[in-house]
Write a structure and sequence with these properties.
Blueprint (H helix, E strand, L loop, with lengths): L1 H17 L4 E6 L4 E5 L4 H9 L2 H19 L5 H28 L2 H4 L3 H24 L1 H9 L1
Antiparallel strand pairs: 1-2
Helix pairs in contact: 1-2, 2-6, 3-4, 3-7, 4-6
Amino acid sequence: MPLYILGHELTHAAGVLVFSGKVYKISVHKEFGYTETDTNNLAIRMAPYFFPLWIFILLAVQYSVLIYYYTNRLAPENFCRLCFGISGFLHAHFFYFTVMLLARNPEDTHASGIALSFVFLLNLLLLFTALFLFLSVNASALIKRFML
């Protein structure tokens, strides 16, 4: 759980930086965490619920390794299968902890209204999940097409 909370708080911090805010403190504990900032809005509050940070990091590593593989003419098939399996595990982990956290501590959704927060969340969650799955499944084909 602390790893999920770290990703959760880092995603809040990334949202603050995207909106030109300042992050003063990130604190992660066993069961909770918080981020102190100078700015706050719906996108920042909901960012950890629709943007899976660890999956984004996995995709960055996957694409970096695939670029290395293809530039050195190596066969990455087993690596792609491994990354796809890890991506599936991380998606399940992300969905489980997102639902658990929203059910247990819904303060991120209350500030902007529950209805608006959930409509915003569901739309972006579907968009990012589809995008990350597409990028994960088609990593080799995309790199072959655009790199080589």
